[in-house]
């Protein structure tokens, strides 16, 4: 049985490529859940210290993810915690995935829409990162 509630903690969901990685995770969740299941995904992130236009852009990205997630059958919400530092994914099934680098694991991708790596994760190069799985009681 899969998770019904997932909390993603990543203080660096600010730029387009980071929001894209998050949306691709939401898409993967959507593909693995039953159509009858409701999955809630909540992001906890920070606004950072950027200029106001970047904060507005971040909010736009997150609202676009919220809209796209609902189309994919996932309820997405987000909140800001300016004290957040660690990166993790926690599920209501008792698992916590500690993400050393957060969701920002891919090298920059080409803007060429004919390059498969611009659309398919399996063709992307990744940065060095670590993941730790913890079973929580």
Outline the structure in words.
Helix content is 27%, strand content 24%. The protein is globular and about 40 Å long.
Give the beta-strand count.
Answer: 6
Secondary structure category: alpha/beta
Contiguous low-pLDDT stretches (5 residues minimum) are none
Helix content: 25-40%
Count helical runs: 2
Q: The biggest beta sheet, please?
A: 6 strands, mixed
- Shape type: globular
Give the rounded overall mean pLDDT: 90
SSE blueprint:
Elements: E1 5-9, H1 16-32, E2 39-45, H2 52-71, E3 74-80, E4 88-91, E5 95-99, E6 131-135
Parallel strand pairs: 1-2, 2-3
Antiparallel strand pairs: 1-4, 4-5, 5-6
Give a quick rundown of the structure:
The chain is an alpha/beta fold and 137 residues long. Helices cover 27% and strands 24% of the residues.
Question: Can you give keywords for this protein?
Answer:
single chain, 137 residues, alpha/beta, 6 strands, globular
């Amino acid at each position: 049985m899969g998770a019904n509630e997932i909390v993603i903690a990543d203080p660096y969901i600010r730029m387009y490529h980071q929001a894209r990685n998050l949306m691709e995770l939401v898409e993967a969740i959507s593909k693995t859940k039953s159509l009858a299941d409701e999955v809630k995904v909540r992001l906890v992130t920070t606004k950072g210290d950027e200029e106001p236009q970047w904060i507005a852009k971040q909010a736009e990205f997150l609202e676009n993810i919220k809209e796209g997630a609902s189309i994919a059958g996932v309820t997405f919400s987000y909140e800001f915690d300016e004290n957040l530092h660690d990166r993790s994914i926690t599920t209501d099934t008792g698992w916590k995935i500690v993400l050393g680098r957060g969701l920002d694991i891919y090298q920059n991708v080409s803007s060429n829409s004919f390059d498969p790596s611009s659309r398919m994760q399996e063709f992307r190069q990744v940065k060095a990162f670590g993941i730790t799985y913890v079973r929580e009681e």
